[in-house]
Amino acid sequence: MASLNTLLGSLLALIVASLAAASASNLHNDFDITWGDGRAKILNNGELLTLNLDSASGSGFQSRNEYLFGKIDMQLKLVPGNSAGTVTAYYLSSKGSAWDEIDFEFLGNLSGDPYILHTNVFSQGKGNREQQFYLWFDPTADFHTYSILWNPQRIVFSVDGTPIREFKNLESMGVPFPKNQPMRIYSSLWNADDWATRGGLVKTDWTQAPFTASYRNFSAEACVLSNGASSCGTNTSPPASSAAANAWFSEELDSTRQERLKWVQKELHGIQLLQRYQPISPRSTSGMQHGLERRRPCITSFQVLPHKIFNFFL
To answer: Which residue, 50, 44, 5, 52, is CA-closest to 25?
Structure first.
Protein backbone atom coordinates (compact mmCIF):
# COMPACT_ATOMS: atom_id res chain seq x y z
CA MET A 1 0.00 0.00 0.00
CA ALA A 2 2.83 2.34 0.88
CA SER A 3 4.46 1.77 -2.50
CA LEU A 4 1.10 2.37 -4.23
CA ASN A 5 0.64 5.61 -2.34
CA THR A 6 4.15 6.64 -3.30
CA LEU A 7 3.44 5.86 -6.95
CA LEU A 8 0.15 7.78 -6.89
CA GLY A 9 1.86 10.69 -5.20
CA SER A 10 4.56 10.73 -7.86
CA LEU A 11 1.98 10.62 -10.65
CA LEU A 12 0.01 13.46 -9.05
CA ALA A 13 3.16 15.54 -8.72
CA LEU A 14 3.99 14.86 -12.37
CA ILE A 15 0.50 15.90 -13.48
CA VAL A 16 0.63 19.08 -11.41
CA ALA A 17 4.07 19.90 -12.78
CA SER A 18 2.88 19.28 -16.33
CA LEU A 19 -0.14 21.52 -15.84
CA ALA A 20 2.05 24.23 -14.35
CA ALA A 21 4.46 23.97 -17.26
CA ALA A 22 1.59 24.15 -19.74
CA SER A 23 0.21 27.23 -18.02
CA ALA A 24 3.62 28.87 -17.86
CA SER A 25 4.15 28.38 -21.60
CA ASN A 26 0.81 29.89 -22.66
CA LEU A 27 1.93 33.12 -24.25
CA HIS A 28 -1.57 34.58 -24.00
CA ASN A 29 -1.08 34.68 -20.23
CA ASP A 30 2.36 36.28 -20.30
CA PHE A 31 2.41 38.81 -23.15
CA ASP A 32 0.39 41.52 -24.84
CA ILE A 33 0.75 42.53 -28.48
CA THR A 34 1.57 46.25 -28.35
CA TRP A 35 1.94 47.40 -31.94
CA GLY A 36 1.96 46.26 -35.54
CA ASP A 37 -1.68 46.45 -36.70
CA GLY A 38 -2.17 42.70 -36.78
CA ARG A 39 1.38 41.82 -37.80
CA ALA A 40 2.02 40.17 -34.43
CA LYS A 41 0.03 37.05 -33.57
CA ILE A 42 -0.25 34.51 -30.76
CA LEU A 43 -1.09 31.14 -32.30
CA ASN A 44 -1.65 27.46 -31.50
CA ASN A 45 -3.53 28.06 -28.26
CA GLY A 46 -0.78 30.25 -26.89
CA GLU A 47 2.15 28.02 -27.81
CA LEU A 48 3.61 30.23 -30.55
CA LEU A 49 4.05 33.98 -31.07
CA THR A 50 5.11 35.50 -34.39
CA LEU A 51 6.26 38.99 -35.29
CA ASN A 52 6.10 40.22 -38.88
CA LEU A 53 7.72 43.11 -40.72
CA ASP A 54 6.76 44.56 -44.08
CA SER A 55 7.42 47.87 -45.81
CA ALA A 56 4.61 49.56 -43.87
CA SER A 57 5.42 48.50 -40.31
CA GLY A 58 7.08 46.10 -37.94
CA SER A 59 5.48 44.68 -34.80
CA GLY A 60 6.14 44.03 -31.14
CA PHE A 61 4.97 42.72 -27.79
CA GLN A 62 5.65 43.19 -24.09
CA SER A 63 5.26 41.14 -20.93
CA ARG A 64 2.29 41.63 -18.66
CA ASN A 65 4.54 41.34 -15.61
CA GLU A 66 7.31 43.58 -14.40
CA TYR A 67 10.38 41.87 -12.94
CA LEU A 68 13.08 42.93 -10.52
CA PHE A 69 15.66 40.15 -10.93
CA GLY A 70 14.99 36.81 -12.54
CA LYS A 71 16.08 33.97 -14.79
CA ILE A 72 14.23 34.33 -18.07
CA ASP A 73 14.23 31.97 -21.05
CA MET A 74 12.65 32.29 -24.48
CA GLN A 75 13.07 30.21 -27.61
CA LEU A 76 13.43 32.23 -30.82
CA LYS A 77 13.70 31.37 -34.49
CA LEU A 78 15.00 34.34 -36.43
CA VAL A 79 14.10 35.75 -39.85
CA PRO A 80 15.45 33.33 -42.49
CA GLY A 81 16.99 34.06 -45.88
CA ASN A 82 17.92 37.60 -46.81
CA SER A 83 17.27 39.41 -43.53
CA ALA A 84 19.59 42.35 -44.25
CA GLY A 85 18.38 45.60 -42.73
CA THR A 86 16.11 43.94 -40.17
CA VAL A 87 16.60 43.87 -36.41
CA THR A 88 14.94 41.45 -34.00
CA ALA A 89 15.21 42.96 -30.52
CA TYR A 90 14.50 40.96 -27.35
CA TYR A 91 15.22 42.77 -24.12
CA LEU A 92 14.32 43.84 -20.61
CA SER A 93 13.71 47.53 -20.02
CA SER A 94 12.31 49.99 -17.50
CA LYS A 95 10.80 53.35 -18.44
CA GLY A 96 11.91 56.95 -18.07
CA SER A 97 14.95 59.02 -18.98
CA ALA A 98 17.23 57.13 -16.57
CA TRP A 99 16.11 53.68 -17.62
CA ASP A 100 17.74 50.29 -17.14
CA GLU A 101 17.94 47.79 -19.99
CA ILE A 102 19.39 44.36 -20.83
CA ASP A 103 19.56 43.70 -24.58
CA PHE A 104 19.65 40.88 -27.07
CA GLU A 105 19.53 42.34 -30.60
CA PHE A 106 19.89 40.20 -33.72
CA LEU A 107 21.17 42.10 -36.75
CA GLY A 108 20.04 40.58 -40.04
CA ASN A 109 22.32 39.89 -42.97
CA LEU A 110 22.41 38.67 -46.56
CA SER A 111 21.60 35.04 -47.24
CA GLY A 112 24.53 32.84 -46.26
CA ASP A 113 26.17 35.48 -44.08
CA PRO A 114 25.97 35.11 -40.30
CA TYR A 115 23.67 37.02 -38.01
CA ILE A 116 25.34 39.37 -35.55
CA LEU A 117 24.14 39.02 -31.96
CA HIS A 118 24.46 42.41 -30.26
CA THR A 119 24.29 42.64 -26.45
CA ASN A 120 24.21 45.68 -24.20
CA VAL A 121 23.49 46.71 -20.62
CA PHE A 122 22.08 50.11 -19.69
CA SER A 123 21.95 51.42 -16.14
CA GLN A 124 20.40 54.77 -15.26
CA GLY A 125 20.21 55.64 -18.95
CA LYS A 126 23.88 54.95 -19.66
CA GLY A 127 24.98 52.18 -22.00
CA ASN A 128 28.16 51.97 -24.07
CA ARG A 129 28.66 48.41 -22.84
CA GLU A 130 27.96 46.68 -26.13
CA GLN A 131 29.48 43.36 -27.17
CA GLN A 132 28.79 41.54 -30.44
CA PHE A 133 29.05 37.85 -31.28
CA TYR A 134 28.68 35.33 -34.04
CA LEU A 135 26.61 32.24 -33.22
CA TRP A 136 27.91 28.70 -33.76
CA PHE A 137 24.71 27.59 -35.53
CA ASP A 138 22.13 28.88 -38.00
CA PRO A 139 19.59 30.72 -35.79
CA THR A 140 17.00 30.68 -38.59
CA ALA A 141 16.83 26.90 -39.09
CA ASP A 142 15.29 26.03 -35.73
CA PHE A 143 14.37 27.42 -32.33
CA HIS A 144 17.15 28.17 -29.85
CA THR A 145 16.94 29.28 -26.23
CA TYR A 146 18.12 32.78 -25.32
CA SER A 147 18.40 33.40 -21.59
CA ILE A 148 19.04 36.25 -19.21
CA LEU A 149 20.11 35.60 -15.63
CA TRP A 150 19.76 38.83 -13.66
CA ASN A 151 20.46 38.81 -9.95
CA PRO A 152 22.03 41.35 -7.59
CA GLN A 153 25.53 40.04 -8.31
CA ARG A 154 25.60 39.63 -12.09
CA ILE A 155 23.87 39.54 -15.45
CA VAL A 156 24.59 36.50 -17.62
CA PHE A 157 23.56 36.25 -21.28
CA SER A 158 23.26 32.62 -22.45
CA VAL A 159 22.41 30.81 -25.67
CA ASP A 160 21.20 27.21 -25.41
CA GLY A 161 22.64 27.10 -21.90
CA THR A 162 26.05 28.37 -22.97
CA PRO A 163 27.03 31.68 -21.36
CA ILE A 164 28.25 34.22 -23.91
CA ARG A 165 28.64 37.23 -21.64
CA GLU A 166 28.81 38.04 -17.93
CA PHE A 167 28.28 41.57 -16.63
CA LYS A 168 29.20 41.66 -12.95
CA ASN A 169 27.99 44.10 -10.33
CA LEU A 170 31.00 46.40 -9.89
CA GLU A 171 29.25 49.23 -8.08
CA SER A 172 32.09 49.20 -5.55
CA MET A 173 34.29 50.43 -8.42
CA GLY A 174 31.81 53.09 -9.51
CA VAL A 175 30.15 51.12 -12.33
CA PRO A 176 26.33 51.48 -12.30
CA PHE A 177 24.39 48.22 -12.14
CA PRO A 178 20.65 47.78 -12.80
CA LYS A 179 19.14 46.74 -9.48
CA ASN A 180 16.40 49.17 -8.46
CA GLN A 181 14.05 49.55 -11.42
CA PRO A 182 11.58 46.82 -12.36
CA MET A 183 11.68 45.91 -16.04
CA ARG A 184 9.30 44.38 -18.53
CA ILE A 185 10.22 42.05 -21.36
CA TYR A 186 9.90 43.61 -24.80
CA SER A 187 10.48 42.30 -28.28
CA SER A 188 10.15 43.88 -31.70
CA LEU A 189 10.94 43.20 -35.34
CA TRP A 190 11.67 46.39 -37.23
CA ASN A 191 13.49 47.94 -40.16
CA ALA A 192 16.88 49.47 -39.36
CA ASP A 193 18.55 49.44 -42.75
CA ASP A 194 20.18 52.81 -42.06
CA TRP A 195 22.65 51.02 -39.77
CA ALA A 196 21.95 47.33 -39.11
CA THR A 197 23.81 45.57 -41.93
CA ARG A 198 27.35 46.69 -42.76
CA GLY A 199 26.76 50.10 -41.29
CA GLY A 200 23.74 50.73 -43.51
CA LEU A 201 25.43 49.85 -46.80
CA VAL A 202 23.04 46.93 -47.37
CA LYS A 203 19.37 47.88 -47.49
CA THR A 204 16.26 45.85 -46.76
CA ASP A 205 14.99 43.92 -49.79
CA TRP A 206 11.25 44.41 -49.49
CA THR A 207 10.58 41.84 -52.20
CA GLN A 208 11.42 39.28 -49.47
CA ALA A 209 8.72 40.62 -47.11
CA PRO A 210 6.98 39.75 -44.92
CA PHE A 211 9.87 38.92 -42.61
CA THR A 212 8.94 36.69 -39.66
CA ALA A 213 10.51 35.93 -36.27
CA SER A 214 8.96 33.25 -34.05
CA TYR A 215 8.85 32.72 -30.27
CA ARG A 216 7.86 29.85 -27.99
CA ASN A 217 8.53 28.14 -24.63
CA PHE A 218 8.82 31.22 -22.45
CA SER A 219 9.68 30.65 -18.81
CA ALA A 220 10.54 32.99 -15.95
CA GLU A 221 11.83 32.18 -12.49
CA ALA A 222 11.67 35.74 -11.27
CA CYS A 223 10.65 38.31 -8.70
CA VAL A 224 7.40 39.76 -10.02
CA LEU A 225 6.47 43.30 -9.02
CA SER A 226 2.83 44.01 -8.24
CA ASN A 227 1.64 47.28 -6.71
CA GLY A 228 5.21 48.00 -5.68
CA ALA A 229 5.62 44.70 -3.80
CA SER A 230 7.96 41.91 -4.91
CA SER A 231 6.93 38.26 -4.97
CA CYS A 232 10.39 37.56 -3.54
CA GLY A 233 9.79 39.64 -0.43
CA THR A 234 12.80 41.96 -0.61
CA ASN A 235 15.30 42.94 -3.29
CA THR A 236 18.22 41.64 -1.25
CA SER A 237 17.08 38.13 -0.42
CA PRO A 238 14.05 35.93 -1.18
CA PRO A 239 12.31 34.23 1.75
CA ALA A 240 14.26 31.33 3.22
CA SER A 241 11.31 29.04 2.53
CA SER A 242 11.75 29.60 -1.20
CA ALA A 243 15.55 29.38 -1.30
CA ALA A 244 15.59 26.23 -3.42
CA ALA A 245 13.11 27.61 -5.95
CA ASN A 246 15.03 30.88 -6.12
CA ALA A 247 18.54 29.43 -6.42
CA TRP A 248 19.03 31.73 -9.42
CA PHE A 249 19.04 34.70 -7.01
CA SER A 250 22.61 33.85 -5.98
CA GLU A 251 23.59 31.78 -9.02
CA GLU A 252 27.08 32.17 -10.45
CA LEU A 253 29.02 30.44 -13.19
CA ASP A 254 30.61 27.14 -12.22
CA SER A 255 33.98 26.12 -13.64
CA THR A 256 32.45 24.36 -16.67
CA ARG A 257 30.35 27.35 -17.66
CA GLN A 258 33.30 29.68 -17.06
CA GLU A 259 35.31 27.65 -19.57
CA ARG A 260 32.48 27.83 -22.10
CA LEU A 261 32.26 31.58 -21.57
CA LYS A 262 36.00 31.93 -22.19
CA TRP A 263 35.66 29.93 -25.41
CA VAL A 264 32.84 32.13 -26.68
CA GLN A 265 34.65 35.33 -25.76
CA LYS A 266 37.80 34.13 -27.53
CA GLU A 267 36.37 32.50 -30.65
CA LEU A 268 33.01 34.13 -31.34
CA HIS A 269 33.51 37.69 -30.15
CA GLY A 270 34.31 38.32 -33.79
CA ILE A 271 33.17 41.84 -34.61
CA GLN A 272 35.20 44.94 -33.96
CA LEU A 273 33.12 48.12 -33.99
CA LEU A 274 33.86 51.73 -33.27
CA GLN A 275 30.53 53.20 -32.37
CA ARG A 276 28.71 55.79 -30.33
CA TYR A 277 25.14 55.85 -29.14
CA GLN A 278 22.53 58.33 -30.25
CA PRO A 279 18.71 58.38 -30.29
CA ILE A 280 16.99 56.58 -33.13
CA SER A 281 16.17 58.95 -35.95
CA PRO A 282 12.49 59.99 -36.12
CA ARG A 283 11.88 58.01 -39.30
CA SER A 284 13.17 54.84 -37.61
CA THR A 285 10.55 55.11 -34.87
CA SER A 286 7.62 54.88 -37.27
CA GLY A 287 5.40 52.08 -36.00
CA MET A 288 7.55 51.41 -32.94
CA GLN A 289 6.07 51.31 -29.48
CA HIS A 290 5.30 54.73 -28.08
CA GLY A 291 6.69 55.77 -24.73
CA LEU A 292 9.78 53.58 -24.75
CA GLU A 293 12.95 55.33 -25.83
CA ARG A 294 15.21 52.97 -27.76
CA ARG A 295 18.77 53.69 -28.70
CA ARG A 296 20.88 52.04 -31.34
CA PRO A 297 24.51 51.93 -32.39
CA CYS A 298 25.62 54.57 -34.84
CA ILE A 299 28.42 52.67 -36.52
CA THR A 300 31.15 55.01 -37.67
CA SER A 301 33.51 52.31 -38.84
CA PHE A 302 33.55 48.55 -38.73
CA GLN A 303 35.53 45.44 -39.52
CA VAL A 304 33.91 42.04 -39.76
CA LEU A 305 36.46 39.36 -39.00
CA PRO A 306 36.49 36.15 -41.07
CA HIS A 307 33.54 33.95 -40.21
CA LYS A 308 34.33 30.58 -38.67
CA ILE A 309 32.30 27.41 -38.31
CA PHE A 310 32.71 25.78 -34.92
CA ASN A 311 31.78 22.38 -33.55
CA PHE A 312 31.77 23.24 -29.88
CA PHE A 313 31.20 20.81 -26.99
CA LEU A 314 27.70 19.88 -28.10
So the answer is: 44
Catalytic residue among 47, 101, 221, 252: 101
Annotated active-site residue in 66, 105, 251, 252: 105
Please name every residue paired with 16 in a beta bridge, in sequence order, or none if there are none: none
CB 26 within 8 A of CB 42: no
Between 250-254, 262-266, 281-285, the lowest mean confidence (pLDDT) is in: 281-285
Residue 221 is among the residues annotated as catalytic for this protein:
no
Per-residue DSSP letters for 201-220? TS---GGGPSEEEEEEEEEE
Which residues does 224 contact at the CB level (< 8 Å), separation at least 6? 65, 66, 67, 230, 231
Mind listing the pLDDT tens digit for each residue in 30-46? 999 999 999 999 999 99
The 8-class DSSP code of residue 248 comes to G
Which segment, 81-95, 219-233, 278-292, is predicted with the most confidence on average? 81-95
SS in 3 state form for 21-80? Answer: HHHHCCHHHHEEEEECCCCCEEEHHHCEEEEEECCCCCEEEEECCEEEEEEEEEEEECCC
Omega within 30 of 0 (cis) for the link into 163: no
Is 186 within 8 Å of 292 (Cβ atoms)?
A: yes
In this model, does residue 8 exceed pLDDT 70?
A: no
pTM over 0.85: no
The fold of the 23-304 domain, in CATH, is: Jelly Rolls (2.60.120)
Instruction: Reply yes or no on whether 105 is catalytic.
Output: yes
Domain spans in the chain, listed from the N-terminal domain onward: 23-304
